[in-house]
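Moderator note: this is an archived Q&A kept for reference. The question asked for a predicted structure of one protein chain; the sequence and the answer are reproduced below.
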Amino acid sequence: MILGRVGRALVVSELVERLRDRWVLIITALFVLLASGISLYGRSAADAQSTVTAPSIVTLSTFLVPLVALVLGHDAIVGERERNTLGLLLSLPVRRGEVLLAKYIGRALALCLAVGVGLGVAAMVLEPGHRAALLALIPPTLLLGAAFLSIGTAISALTRHRATAASLVVVLWFLLVFFYDLGILAALVATDGALSQDTVAWLVTLNPAGLYRTGMLVSLVGTEALSQMGLAVALPSTALKAALWAAWIIGPLLVGAAALHRRQAVTG
């Protein structure tokens, strides 16, 4: 869907509002401080700065970025509905799906700035020869944030109250970031290890947080190191990983657009 003139104006308006949001500024500052702290600690490893710092920042990003993205997206539509401004917004010469997409893009740009600044500052703390490994984390981390922001935006379109949306995104964060892997571990225990490594690997990569972690693991240590650790599994190809990321980013937006169109058709 190509944004028209009104849609592009909504993107700019949404970005400006998010950049003025104290919560976004606080989260950005927190991410900068935590990532920089990890980098400063990694400098003590001398020649292994990047190999010490990058895995730690991957772990930090796996927990923090999805939460930030979900919270950032949870009130995109339901917030307008509670302020009674959604009807006015949809009365503009713009399609309903375009409104949702503009809201998403504006918030995604704000998230990109937060992640880019956080990881960029952390990379600058390292010595020049070790910065490339940390800067290489930015694109996949942005994909992680984009996927969870899409989920949060869809939840915002599906709910009627901001408190409900906030509760749902927190629960979903716990489910996907914490309990999903525990569920796979429980399945392994319940089946007495009958699940193959390939099956477990596929289950992990179906979760955007797991897809990010496995991708970063391969990027940081390589497939040969995984084989030496006894993890000789068939991980998804680059094309399949791209398809999975596209599904997690586009799919929830389509669900949200359909929900927004249906709800407005009923109330209209």
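Archived answer notes: Residues 56 and 75 are 31 Å apart (CA to CA).
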